[in-house]
Amino acid sequence: MNPLPGWRAAFRIARRDAARAKGRSALVVAMIALPVLGVTAADLTYRSALPTRAEELTADLGSADALFTATSMGPMKLQQMPDGISWNPADDTADPTPEEQARPVDVTATFPEGSRHLTERSVPASVTTRHGITDTEITELRIGDPMLRGRIELTDGSFPRAADEIAATEKFIESSGLSVGDRITVRGPDQTYTLTGAVELPADLRADSLYALPGSVIAPWQKTADGDKSVLPPQATDPKWLVQAPSGAGVTWQDILAANEKGVVVMSRQVVLNPPPDSEVPMASMMGDSFDTDTELTAAALTVTAMALLEIVLLAGPAFAVGARRSRRQLGLVGSCGGSRGQVRAVVLAGGAVLGGVGAVAGVGAGFGLTALFRPMIEDYTGNRFGELTVRPWEILGIAVLGLVTGVLAALAPAIVAGRQSILESLTGRRGIRRSSRVLPVIGVVAIAVGVAIAVYGGISGSTNLVAGGSVLAELGVLCCIPVIVGLLGRLGRRLPLTPRIALRDAARNRGRTAPAVAAVMAAVAGSIAIATYTSSNAAEQEYDFVPNMTPGTVALMDSGDSGEAADLAVSRAAVEQNFPVGGGRADIGRVWAGSDCMDYYEEDGAGCGTLELVKPTGKGHSCPLKGKGAKELALRISADEHKRLMNSPACMDENYTMIAFGSDEHKIVVGGADVLSTYVKLDDPAAAKALAEGTPVLLNSAYAKNGEVTLKAAHIYNDRDKKNRALHPGKARTTTEQLKVYVAEDRFAATPGIRMVMPKQTAQRLGLHVEDHGSFYPLTRELTDAEHQAAYSALQRAGDHGYLMTSNERYRTEDDTILLILALFAGVVTLGAAAITTGLSKADAEADLTTLSAVGAPPGVRRSLSGFQCLVVALTGVLLGTAAGLVPAVALRLTDLRAALEDMREDPMESAYTPIVMPWETIGLLALVVPVLAGLLAAALTSSRLTLARRAG
């Protein structure tokens, strides 16, 4: 028997039914098309933004065939890998002597015969801008040559053609405030150039650099430095050669081997794209196998695909169910005319296939359109241009098939239900009564318990596969329990007003419509909460591990030491105060030393200058237990929280890393007053300020104090070249040890960057130490802009360049906030969509009930408020369940991270094991409060309150 005629009729009925119910059909098509659109756009963006190996070579070589580079080893035999990145001396070659390393390498002699080449060198430089002065990198390279196309592209103006012309990247032009036609001066040699063009590096849109012709910057700079010793010579990089072989020849592996013989490393386009077999690569035996992440990426992709498919099925399923219910008379007629249950099911399934196919095609087409439309924005965000819009036909076809299959799967359950209905019920419009399964909730509870246990065990044992499997199982368990949870909602409405009571009871009575929508919201929110929780926790860990170089929100001006005149420092201070957004008063500090100043009289044997040491006592509270003997045994016994407490204790504060700044040596003592405590240390303590005023130093690290005193050891060594101080201190060197009474600050101030103790000037002089004014701290009212930086540097240069600035190295700014916002928006959109879909379906499904309400005198606003509360019930329930479900994988993954951190800590006790779990309360608040309320308000606002008179059926 041929089944095609039956299916042909089923598709014809489904197509006509879809055309007849345009609103419901458009809703289903949109639900299927939107995820297909997202996956298509993500696939196109990922494939296009991820550079191929050929595109990476273009970023390095332009259109050249190879890049030739000499090493610092001299003309000695090398061996390299085909990628041109990894190399080392040949196995049969002895280490070169300094004389051999200094010998020049004739790189051009290794080029293939008939080749053309360009040279490239870079030099860091300080240049003038519209705002002042900035540091950048100048590259000598003939960027107008066709060999550079694909690597550097002109966006405005023209390429440099003369020695006094220069081009800049768009990023440099933006930050400097310059424009094409302006003049730029390279400070030091004071060479001036005309900015002729703006360029961009397609592989690095954030590049901040300048480009000049070969020989126009470095050589004149070097010539100026040779004639004027006050000009520092250029610190240029070694030259590189971009080579273009004769047409069609390329640079072969044999050419590379020949170049290796003379000490030259080569990156060849031809060899990288078509590498030789390992048997022809001498270095191949030394290289291990690279780590393959394809399996993990495939598993992650499959998981995301499965969750997306589940999401669409959950959203579209109720629409097909309502469609089948509204078409039950038509389906009953099919049965009354001799159609079998299978043919009834085929009609509903054909509807899924028709709408799924339309949604898939529409989604793929819209994905292409949106990717092309937002391509410039995506390129700016990723920082690189797409080489081309990369389309992999099989992947796009697979995405379209996924949309089609999803439509069929979404119609599967409604098709089974429609096939089971009796013909009499279908023709009369009766719904019948079907009790909820009692077994399903039990299975759900068991799945939740087992899934959570597996995920937690996976986190403790370090198995991400178990974490993923357990999390999915727990989420499926929650899905099984949703019908019961929705049923319980009806009981909560007993004491509520009319409209919310009807909404809750309608949700409970129509679980087949409500439960899938709640499940869809839960799935979207669970994924977003899981990623947001993990991202927030990881960001908190990075913030904890971050070691600032200065107290945030401050800037320091330090004397460069080449003048020593108080008037010069005063002018530098004025430059900062006039150009930086400083608030409050400045805090001046001085540096302190014993004997001759090591900044001026340091000698290799250490005997040419004095030393100053703040001696750290030993014993409990002074010695760090995580360092030295017994540290590893202790690390095996303590938890991550105990390790964190020890690492933050004053005894361990300086053991792993200490920053020396502000003119201090390892003692980290600065001379200052109470303003240093309030401005930089952020210690607002009247007792500490009083102690400084009375001549008592303030100790910030209590581990250096014993019984309220510190031990200060000074070696008063005076150099014979230090005529002034040597005359005041004749005789042999002497060493003094002083017990100083100090004011000990709270332990939290031990982490103050760069300062361990603040000493009054009179105390330092009383101890026979030397003091000089060294700089100032300034509190900032806001973050500095590029223009303010450049203006301040320029003002300091005009003031004689006697000072330098130190600014806080702000924590590396990840895209965590952006990621959290995107996740919240994604979950919010799905929540709004699912709630709106359910509200629309409930409205279509409950016309008879609404007609009855109108008949008994319900005011028109009831329709609006009922739609709003129906939407609110779905959104709020799904968000709360999703939040709980999303915490399971996030916590389990953080347990995996904790296990790895503890292993690292027990190997090196000074390694941090801090692995926090931080809740993304902003994201949760947005999803749990704002989104449900917004969904309810939108549903109420978009629902018509106008009554339509209708005759009550039956």
Question: How would you briefly describe this protein structure?
Answer:
The chain has 954 residues and is of the alpha+beta class. It contains 32 helices and 23 strands.
Structural class: alpha+beta
Number of strands: 23
How would the global form be characterised?
A: globular
Assembly state here?
Answer: single chain
Number of helices: 32
What percent of residues are in strands?
5-15%
- Please give the radius of gyration in angstroms: 37 Å
> What characterizes the major β-sheet?
10 strands, mixed
Task: Provide structural commentary.
It is a single chain. Helix 2 (22-49) packs antiparallel against helix 9 (294-326), helix 19 packs antiparallel against helix 28 (786-798) and helix 29 packs antiparallel against helix 31. Helix content is 51%, strand content 14%. Strands 1, 4, 5, 6, 7, 8, 9, 10, 11 and 12 form a 10-stranded mixed beta sheet that branches. It has 32 helices and 23 strands. It is α+β, with helices and mostly antiparallel strands and 954 residues long.
Descriptors for this entry?
954 residues; alpha+beta; ten-stranded mixed β-sheet; 51% helix; globular
Task: Describe the secondary structure blueprint for this structure.
Elements: H1 4-20, H2 22-49, H3 53-61, E1 66-70, E2 78-80, E3 87-89, H4 98-102, E4 116-128, E5 133-140, E6 153-157, E7 165-169, H5 170-176, E8 183-186, E9 191-200, E10 209-212, H6 218-227, E11 240-244, H7 253-261, E12 264-268, H8 269-273, H9 294-326, H10 328-336, H11 341-373, H12 375-382, H13 393-420, H14 423-428, H15 439-461, H16 464-489, H17 498-509, H18 511-545, E13 554-559, H19 566-579, E14 587-593, H20 598-601, E15 611-615, H21 631-637, H22 640-647, H23 650-653, E16 669-671, H24 674-681, H25 686-693, E17 698-699, E18 709-716, H26 723-728, E19 734-741, E20 743-744, E21 757-759, H27 761-766, E22 770-779, H28 786-798, E23 803-807, H29 816-845, H30 847-855, H31 861-907, H32 921-942
